[in-house]
Amino acid sequence: MTIRHVRRPPWARAGGPGPLPATGRPLRWGVVGTGLIARRVTPQLNRLEDALLQAVSSRETARARAFADEFGAHEAYGDEGDEPGYVRLAADPAIDVVYVATPHGQHHGVTHALLAAGKHVLVEKAFTVTGDEAEDLVRLARRRGLFLMEAVWTRFLPVYQAACDAIADGKLGRVEWVQADLGFAAPFDPRSRMWAPDDGGGALLDLGVYAYAWALAGLGRPRAVTAHGRVNELGVDDLSALTLHYEGDRFAQLTMTLVSHATRTATMSGSKGTLRTWAPLTSPGGFTLDQPSGSRDVHADAGEAPHAHMLREVTRCVQQELTESPTMPLDDTLATMRLFDEARRQIGVRYPHDRP
Question: What pTM does this model have?
Fold first, then answer.
């Protein structure tokens, strides 16, 4: 077995966390939301030398202020009367770009307000709840000439890029099928955004983009989907399985679960070999490449700040006045949301966001 190490950037090597060197003019950031994902990503944002945390918003001013004090934001905005905190943040002229870290049921309203105010926006996954909402935001961003991107951070990791390179280099030959599963046994709490229909809860929207990212790497966009799932008493899916159909009778099989454990790995199988990611597929430390000549491991650690690769791409694009990332184009996001719309239709999941 041979071991190959993918080069890591200097800030991610041994010696502890450090700043990420500047790539251009500093950008002033806002963060909407103060939940778990915001607390995970904001410290990594602070490591960019060309990023300044200008403001944060939350429904409660006290919560926004506590978050701002903890992470060094200059301003904190909460709801005042009928005016949401994110609207007040959107009006802040000192902000260049905003990271939206609310539950995805709120993404459309928040992001629309930010784009209307002239802000560039990075939106957590799932991008929106429906394809119609996604199209509305993309249309607005393109009309205003603003940067907009879905935060599928896995696609920016060195390991994902190394896997794409292996496929492009023909290491697998013609890829015939992809399998990916992701999930865990989540505590059932009707108050949690994970289970709430108003928040777009359920396994598909919460986990699907990660599993689907590996299908995109191996086979690209499918021509059709067959979906099966289980809908709980709240009306959201707690277990979903998708079969994606491709030209030439090739397939991808994706499973997302909130009620059981999963291998949390992806496998791509081709005429010349098989690529198996390590767990978890959201941020694997590498993958195993099996070929008739033998097996080898490819190590590609994301470092101490795995979301930083995505944040660097947003920074680069805004600095260079790009309105889309070539690594995570908006057409991919639109196609994904339409795919999920059809999968939900087949499973029987309808949200308040869906058109009558």
Answer: 0.94
